[in-house]
Amino acid sequence: AIPLVVAVSTSIAAKSGLLIRDRQAFERARNLQAIIFDKTGTLTEGRFGVTDIVSLSGEENETGENLKDSNERILSLAASLEASSEHPIATGILESAREKGVQTQAVEEFSSIPGKGVQGLVDGNKFLVVSPGYLEENGIALKNQKIEEIEAQGKTVVFLLEESKVLGAVALADIIRKESREAILKLKSMGIKCLMLTGDNRYVAAWVSKELELDDYFAEVLPHEKAEKVKEVQAEYITGMVGDGVNDAPALAQADVGIAIGAGTDVAIETADIVLVKNDPRDVVDIIGLSKKTYSKMY
Ligand code: ADP
Ligand code: MG
């Protein structure tokens, strides 16, 4: 039988938008020493807007109509490829193309490269939209001052490639959830280490980490490495993980307490021990408080 205080707490939790799916994990929550937050969609809203398009095809002195044409071509090709992806970056690029009335083209042999981007054929030619990490791994050199400036602003940059030739870059910006700062501040005041895990580039990660005064972060982490990072932190601390994406599911399962954002993917929600129905990271503080109250009454 479920002890009465636990049953009462579970229903109090449910009323405040905390769905407890695993009671043992809820009990462990009172002992948490570190919490790892996924960035996109968890600490940030996960709604990307396109801020810049940069042509990198090498044709210098592009001005006026030429520049507009090449930027539209970059957006059109990127949007065509992203039409089959559900990543927040894809949604941002598609929305921008729609707003600007840019047409998309049919894509054949689409596939996604997990944690790196997407690829497919347009008119029989291979195009990709990929992360800076993908360029590095494939020895595709790129030194560009404009890109460096954009990255320094904490924006997410993806590159449009035709085969291994870089045609251009699309920069996107996301918004830090306004509740994130307060959540981190409170957790830190409780002596809990606050960390961030993201597949996004190191500049964006550094920027968000600084804004939120996080204790540490891991950037450019591939989907299959996320659970491994949680394990590393667990070697030192009793660790919670808060995430929303398909990629976060193994990390949520690995953590001592796995917490999913309610607006997240079905996979994340099904894997999590606790679900934040209101999508509010401050509710992590409430979980720990409620867990402490509940179990200190029992023992
Ligand atoms: P996270 O959810 O931690 O932000 P992901 O693992 O989903 O990270 O993605 C990591 C990076 O891979 C993104 O920042 C982006 O550079 C690249 N990426 C992933 N999916 C796409 C996509 N559909 N289009 C372009 N880039 C993508
Ligand atoms: Mg995410």
Structure, described:
With 299 residues, this protein is α/β, with parallel strands linked by helices. The protein contains 13 helices and 13 strands. The protein has helices at 4-15, 23-28, 39-43, 64-82, 88-99, 132-137, 145-152, 178-189, 202-212, 226-234, 249-254, 266-271, 283-296; strands spanning 18-20, 34-38, 49-55, 108-113, 117-122, 125-130, 156-162, 165-173, 193-197, 216-218, 239-243, 257-261, 274-276. A 7-stranded mixed β-sheet has the order 1-13-12-11-2-9-10, sandwiched between helices. Strands 3-8-7-6-5-4 form a 6-stranded antiparallel β-sheet. Strand 11 (239-243), helix 11 (249-254) and strand 12 (257-261) form a beta-alpha-beta unit. The longest helix is centred in the first third of the chain and has 19 residues, at 64-82. The site of magnesium ion has 7 residues, from helix 3.
Provide a compact summary of the structure.
The protein has 299 residues and is of the alpha/beta class. Helices cover 42% and strands 23% of the residues. The chain folds into two domains: 4-45 and 176-296, 3-Layer(aba) Sandwich (Rossmann fold), CATH 3.40.50.1000; 49-173, Calcium-transporting ATPase, cytoplasmic domain N (3-Layer(aba) Sandwich).
Key features of this structure:
299 residues; Rossmann fold; Calcium-transporting ATPase, cytoplasmic domain N; seven-stranded mixed beta sheet; 13 helices; 13 strands; elongated; binds adenosine-5'-diphosphate; binds magnesium ion
